[in-house]
Amino acid sequence: MTTLSITDGRVLRPNGTIERADVLVDQESGEILEIAPDLSETGDETLDAANSLVTPGFVNGHCHVAMTLLRGYADDKPLETWLREDIWPVEGAFTAEDIRAGTELGLLEMIKSGTTAFADMYFEVPEIADAVETAGLRALLGHATVTVAKDSEAALADTQESLDVARELDGAADGRISTAFMPHSLTTVGSEYLEEFVPKARETGVPIHYHANETREEVTPIVEEHGVRPLAYAAERGMLEPEDFLAHGVHVDESEIGLLAEAGTSVIHCPASNMKLASGMAPVQRMLEAGVTVGLGTDGAASNNDLSMLDEARDAAMLGKLAAEDASAVPAETVVEMATQGSAEALGFDSGRLEAGAPADLAVIDLEKPHLTPHHDLVSHLAYAAAAADVRHTVCDGRVLMRDREVLTLDETAVRERALERASSLDARVGE
């Protein structure tokens, strides 16, 4: 057994308290062995956490990581226009090499901002899985299936690919990769395909992840065509189970919040994307009060425009108060839980907390910064003041991914250069 000791820091515990302690990690099993003072002499390797806060690694509950190549590509448009006029056409020109380059750039960004796990919905998923294995992160991956504007043969093949990817990649990267069946949304996948493939996903034993109620335009067609709200429509097709999780949930009414709470289905809140695309304000406080598990996600870098969960936490806290018209809504401790334990629970990961026996997924935040001084309430600082650049070290599954801002599993310069090259090539191809 080789051990890692994170020393001389302050540790955020699952109950929201903070204590001065060291964290001892079994690097072979990837688990935390002990959290206690004076463990610095115990570890074979050490990470200095002096004047720092040791937190659970952040869990990005919903993103499209390869879309880093489209950061700043098209801004300041409503969702439907943005997708149909800009994003879907350029995505149609993506190659596997583009997706690999964009994924590596996104993984680099996540490691540098303390994210240790994420859920990703995209295509060319084997390329994404291979990049995840190299980078050392934990991920739940799936192929996004879309059937609208396709003939029946193409639609069937695309939906089958989502199921095949879920079957083939589950457990990859020494168990750090899990999978889900991922219909893109309730309005972009025909009901006949949901009715055929959701039971197959259940037989396979994987969860289902999809966009739902992101905009009013995703609600109205379902109500008009089927006579029920979107989440009632989803429930009728077996898509609201405890292992399932949906993205956004902006325009849910009280009946749908009740369905989520009763089913145990989780919601991933993406406040920055929802604000930028003017999709609306999700009723996060009402969902939490109803007992719905709510996690946090960045969505893609094309609509955010970064993958920092610390930025997302601040946005979630601020927008949650505005939506509820209540300054006490979505408080600091709650939003930090959403970015760690909430997202982890939604994705089925046994992470998001620091205690003996938990996976050693953690981040170390440098507190010696003007914007993090004084130290009245460090949980408040995480929610309202900390930034990606404050992350000193990142550890996933007991492996040090970043030490003193140097990423050890990816070549930062090479990753950035490849991303720039692929983005330039993509511009040229789309412009032809």
Shape: globular
Residue share in β-strands: 15-25%
Distance between the termini: 56 Å
Q: Unreliable stretches, pLDDT < 50, 5 or more residues?
A: none
Radius of gyration based on Cα positions: 21 Å
β-strand number: 18
The major beta sheet can be summarized as: 9 strands, mixed
Helix content: 40-55%
- Number of helical stretches of at least 4 residues: 14
Structural class: alpha/beta
Q: Roughly what is the average pLDDT, rounded to an integer? A: 96
Describe this structure in words.
- It catalyses: S-methyl-5'-thioadenosine + H2O + H(+) = S-methyl-5'-thioinosine + NH4(+); S-adenosyl-L-homocysteine + H2O + H(+) = S-inosyl-L-homocysteine + NH4(+).
- Its EC number is 3.5.4.28, 3.5.4.31.
- InterPro entries: Amidohydro-rel, Deaminase_MtaD/DadD, Metal-dep_hydrolase_composite, Metal_Hydrolase, MTA/SAH_deaminase.
- It comes from Natronoglomus mannanivorans.
- Residues 53-400 form the Amidohydrolase-related domain.
- Helices cover 40% and strands 22% of the residues.
- It has 432 residues and is of the alpha/beta class.
- The mean pLDDT is 96.
- The longest helix is centred in the C-terminal third of the chain and has 20 residues, at 412-431.
- Strands 1, 2, 3, 4, 5, 15, 16, 17 and 18 form a 9-stranded mixed sheet that branches.
- The chain has 14 helices and 18 strands.
- 55% of the residues are buried.
- Helix 11 (309-324) crosses helix 12 (332-347).
- A hairpin with a 2-residue loop joins strand 16 and strand 17.
